[in-house]
Amino acid sequence: MSGIVVVGVDGSETAMRAAETAKELATALGASLRVVTAFDKKRTEVVESGGDKWILSDADEAEKIALDVATKLADGKLGISYTAAFGKPGEALIQEAERVGADLIVVGNRRMQGIGRVLGSVANTVAHNAPCDVYIAKTDEP
């Protein structure tokens, strides 16, 4: 295949399970892995301490989450990249998959039962609108 597998993460344990599944699939397919964290607010905050000044944003926090997951998954054999993408999670994953020409999007099945199923879920949004194949990983049980 030698394509790209995109996985969405949010720092949760269930998202990490989806990321581990995505890693296994990317490895088996000979693809690279793109770890994506969505953020839907463009807030920034300026923090000053002494003579130092930092600008913190939601994008920075999302990118840290994606980097953390990418670092945990790294094994030296698989090409892994990461990014923060603006938008609601499902929409951000779809846009990133389109942008990089992904062959597969991996999402977890969290919130696909009960009230979450009625209100919608990331997996539901991605499954109905993705530009490529979608793999829904069972993440609600360890």
How would you characterize this protein structure?
Pfam families: Usp. The chain has a single domain (4-137), classed as HUPs (Rossmann fold), CATH 3.40.50. Helices cover 42% and strands 30% of the residues. The protein has 5 helices and 7 strands, in the order βαβββαβαβααβ. A 5-stranded parallel beta sheet has the order 5-2-1-6-7, with helices on both faces. A two-stranded antiparallel ribbon has the order 3-4. β1 (4-8), α1 and β2 form a beta-alpha-beta unit. α3 (89-100) packs parallel to α5. The longest helix has 17 residues, at 13-29. The radius of gyration is 16 Å and the shape is globular. Mean pLDDT is 85; it is low at 112-119.
Highest-level CATH class: Alpha Beta
Span of the ends, CA to CA: 29 Å
Portion of residues within helices? 40-55%
- Give the strand order of the largest sheet, numbering strands 1, 2, ... along the chain: 5-2-1-6-7
